[in-house]
Amino acid sequence: MPATTRTTLRRGLFAAAALPLLVGALASCSYGSEAKNDEKKVAAEGTKLSADTVRLGYFPNLTHATALVGDQEGIFQKELGGTTLRSTTFNAGPSEIEALNAGSIDIGFIGPSPSINGYTKSKGTNLRIVGGSASGGVKLVVDPKKIKTLDDVKGKRIATPQLGNTQDVAFLNWVAEKGWKVDSQSGKGDVSVLRTDNKITPDAYKSGSIDGAWVPEPTASKLVSEGAKVLLDESDLWPDKKFVITNIIVSQKFLKEHPDVVEAVLRGSVKTNAWINANPEKAKASANAKLKELSGKPLGDKVINNAWPSIQFIDDPLAATLRAQADHAVKAGLLKQPDLNGIYDLTALNKVLKAAGKPEVSDAGLGVK
């Protein structure tokens, strides 16, 4: 493998930890910059665990389909028994981290950027990554009339979701690997990087104000439905075509006080992922039903059918890719050297995986000692 490719694989997605200006922009795999809290209390039955209630946060996005489906199908609640599940949805990573810090939620599905930013800003005191949920689901999509090859991206206007979010920094690093120059703050240079909320990116594409976008699903597939072409799937840049896009995090306080509840949620996540992978059509329908409930409108069949195959639903948090992403961000000068030691505690997850007859997963040396 060429050295440039290896370097590309270590793309950093974490600008915000070093730049306070970007803290409000982080939304790793979100589809909007404003938080939306939509609580839903689910009736609990059976034996109560050590907590009366567990408050779960996630985004109404396909990259959070484990949470969507696990909630929709009652899989989490079944594992929790008499402990009540209370779900809250967010549209941005910072909002979810704020909720975790404030004690408004206990466990959350969230992307790598806000995970690492939250951990480093609290000096390692607020959260632990306890599991994985999804990989992939990020693409460079372009206007095929204007861009036919990767080299054609130079001189064009490419949208990313937000200044400093995971896809934004991923694109900046890809541009750097091509040998092109772009100012990370202004987005000006050999490529014009236009930070555009995913909710309006399809309209921006239709109007011709952007030539393409480096975006997560389902935004990428929404652009494809408008005539765009997938030029690059980010998964193709990673070993085994896997990189973390969604983690499961938990408040350190809640983990210490209610490890049985955390374990139950992880059992629910592992069982949900197994069900999703065994029943992709039913899972798509379930996720879309939950999206309709949360947003009032489901995704069109063409969009969800195109988006779904690019996302891998896995239990492994892919800790090595998190480390690689952070290292690349540091080398790019977008992140001060972070101390990630202790960001993972995969004890409960590996217990669940072992009980299910599945192989244990690694914390890449970043686990609690």
Q: Which structural class is indicated by helix and strand composition? A: alpha/beta
| Annotation, overall tally of beta strands | 12
Main beta-sheet strand count, sense and barrel state:
7 strands, mixed
Count of alpha and pi helical runs: 14
Q: What attributes does this structure have?
A:
alpha/beta, 14 helices, 5-stranded mixed beta sheet, 12 strands, 369 residues, globular, 7-stranded mixed beta sheet
What does this molecule look like?
The chain has helices at residues 3-9, 65-72, 75-80, 93-102, 112-121, 166-177, 201-207, 219-225, 252-257, 259-278, 280-295, 301-307, 319-331, 347-355; strands at residues 40-42, 53-58, 84-89, 107-110, 127-136, 138-142, 157-160, 192-195, 212-216, 229-233, 244-251, 311-313. The chain has 14 helices and twelve strands. Strands 1-3-2-4-11-5-12 form a seven-stranded mixed beta sheet, sandwiched between helices. The chain is α/β, with parallel strands linked by helices and 369 residues long. The longest helix has 20 residues, at 259-278. The model is unreliable at 1-35 (pLDDT under 50).
